[in-house]
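Known limitations

Files may contain more than one protein. Parsers should not assume a single record per file. Below, a two-record file is shown to illustrate correct handling: read the sequence, read the token line, then continue until end of file.
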Amino acid sequence: MAERLQKILAQADYGSRRSCEEIIRQKRVTVNGVVAGIGQSADPERDEIAVDGKPIRRKLAFTYIALNKPRDVLSDEGDGTGRLTTARQLLPVPGHLFPVGRLDLRSEGLLLFTDNGELANRLTHPRYEHTKEYRVLVEGHPDRQVLDSWRNGVLLDEQMTLPARIEVVEETPDRTWLRVVLREGRKRQIRRVASLLGHYAVKLVRVRVGPIWIGQLKPGEWRYLSSKEIEWLEQLVQKPRQAARHPRGKPQKRRRRRN
């Protein structure tokens, strides 16, 4: 069955789909001895696909890991200086694993790792709107107006955020724990929105990505996903993309072109 080359390369452990597209752009990929181009498809069962002259080998089984990222640990590879610990260094597992989404340096919680580039792309690309759930400790006590503003959408970088689920979980004398469920993941979105609304985020913990929960993992601990969890993820990414929505969640109307 013919598939896009970048998908085939990602499944063969050459990185994410985006990095595989770059390999193709660099003219390092050939199909049946002919240099391949972006957008090209091939049948890995019939065609001879090679990178840098070496035939690829498709992975028959992928690795899926859940990690509770501690505070002050980088989600990605960082600047290469080695001054900070990376989440990947906490996993004593061989192979090229990359994180599914990111958490900023001060944030904690669930971070998925896999060598399945296609699945990672489907889980992280904003157009698929997969949900992520957080526990957020903010300063003060947000009133109903603030919570409703957050729920309906806030102007951030000249674009409204998508509607979100915001619930009060617990209040202390001077702080509030919130449950926040998002369908998007802009850079430091929760912290920035909380600050815009006048409530600084003191602590942020991601507890769920799609159908996968952090469970009883303590900071720094990790586990392999169960076969059932992997099945959930595969079913999730096979669903069609969400319809485009405007900032308050209603379907956008298509504009007619004027001649």
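...continuing to the second record:
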Amino acid sequence: MLSREGPRAWMSQELDRARSRATDADRVPLFCGSDLAARIERAEAQLMAEVTEAARGRRADGGGFVIPVAGGVATFAEEGSPYNKIAGLGFGGLPDAAVLDEIERAFAGQGVAAQVEVASLADPALVDTLTDRGYRLAAFENVLGRDITTGSEPVEVPEIEVRRSRPDELDAWIELVVDAGAHPDTQGIPMEEFPRDVLERAERDSAAIDGMRRYVALRHGQPAGGASLRIAEGIAQMAGAATAPAHRRNGVQTALLAARLADAAAERCEVAVVTTQPGSKSQQNVQRRGFDLLYTRAVLLKHV
């Protein structure tokens, strides 16, 4: 049955579908081996360390800690922070037992469990090391990536403008992304929740580090979403994005992602990466924009 718009519109739709299929068929999925995974995990560990140092500088008591460990880092920013974890292990040799003892004591001194994120491409012996010490599986998260060495095609989203957020907009930008994060999409595995005041400080600490770029999306001239980008070692980290509930399903995420990809490609980044919850709307959005699943991180906890 032909479209109500007539044979010509129907033919145009069929051609669009054919072009889409041809583009998908020509695209080679990004392959991730252990070398690329090591670069991504190293960039993640550097980000954790830099944000945590910003948090420590903000705190009047100078508390928290950053402890290097086997090519990765253990960080504690403050109570309840998303930056309290061990990241980047498994690509620089196995961690020394004495250093793990020190780290576990440090987390225990803060009254929290030790949390380790382990990439599926890390040294397999790392999981044995951790489970032998009493760590148990708690969750998973996915790392997706896209090759941007050939550039990134611009995407025009009607009625949405994306630009860099100005320094004088920091408070408004933080309020926007925290408000949006307080109403997450329910598709996929539920996200870990954090207190609002903790999220506000975490966003402020993240914005304070060198090289972190903030973006704002305007829909009908009104702030509709915000996002961040960090570039390190040719890796473009999509460091977070959020859309206000009233503006969802209107292409805000697509516009924010396209703007960041274009900027990263212009600076000759090789790979753009994003971390999502398994099966989430965020994962669906980035896969539609050409991101491939590179590997999964297992989240392990040890209550001490």
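Parsers that stop after the first record will miss the second one. For reference, the second record is described as follows. Helices lie at 7-26, 34-58, 97-109, 125-132, 170-181, 196-208, 252-266, 281-288.
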